[in-house]
Amino acid sequence: MQRARPIHPKTIFNKQMTELRKKYLNEHLQNQKSLKEKQQQIEQQQTEIREFKDLDIKKYKQEKMDLLKGESYSEWKEFIDKRKKERLANYLSNQKKISDKRMNSLVYLLNNSVSFVTYENMNSYIQKVLANPISNNNSLEYLKNHYENEREMVLKDLVKGTWKDTEGIDLIKQRMAYLKKMQE
Predict the structure, then answer these.
(1) DSSP classification of residue 7
(2) What does the longest C-alpha to C-alpha distance in the chain come to?
């Protein structure tokens, strides 16, 4: 009797791994095949949709052309002619408005050029300014008082609740008193 030859563990492992690789390869090939089929189905659906849209567009264009070729074609032609005339009239009126606006701005510049300071008339303007000096202290005092008054008015309005729809202090006090009563 012959003894069975022992199988080395590495050989067993290699056989198992080969079988496992074949199994994974088959699974991968099946997945690739199903993906290709799905992709073909999607492409077929997209081409069908595209053809349907193209057919719809052709049908719409044909209906439109049929309408235009009938009695309504002359009405359409009249409408287009009328629209062209209106557009031309609008364009001309718009150009006239632009021209008038430019003319008015030029007239304004011409009228203001009399008071424009140039190198030649600079001395006369300097003499006018020096003849009517304004005290810096007076103008600073005026600005200071003006801003103080304005600030005071805003603060009063805040207290009354009339500035930018804010709630006044009196209303806030009433609400606080009400909340205290509710807590007690």
Answers:
(1) P
(2) 141
HSE of 15, CA atoms in CB hemisphere, 13 A: 6
Cβ 39 vs Cβ 31: under 8 Å: no
- Do the beta carbons of residue 161 and residue 167 sit within 8 Å? yes
pLDDT at residue 135 greater than cutoff 80: no
* CB neighbour list of residue 158: distance below 8 Å, 6 or more residues apart: 166, 168, 169
Q: Is 166 exposed, middle or buried (0-12, 13-18, 19+ CB in 10 A)?
A: middle
pTM comes to: 0.29
**pLDDT confidence tier of residue 176, bands split at 50, 70 and 90:** confident
User: Can you tell me the distance from the alpha carbon of 8 to that of 5, in angstroms, rounded to the nearest whole number?
Assistant: 9
Backbone dihedral region of 161: left (phi > 0), alpha (psi from -120 to 50 degrees) or beta? left
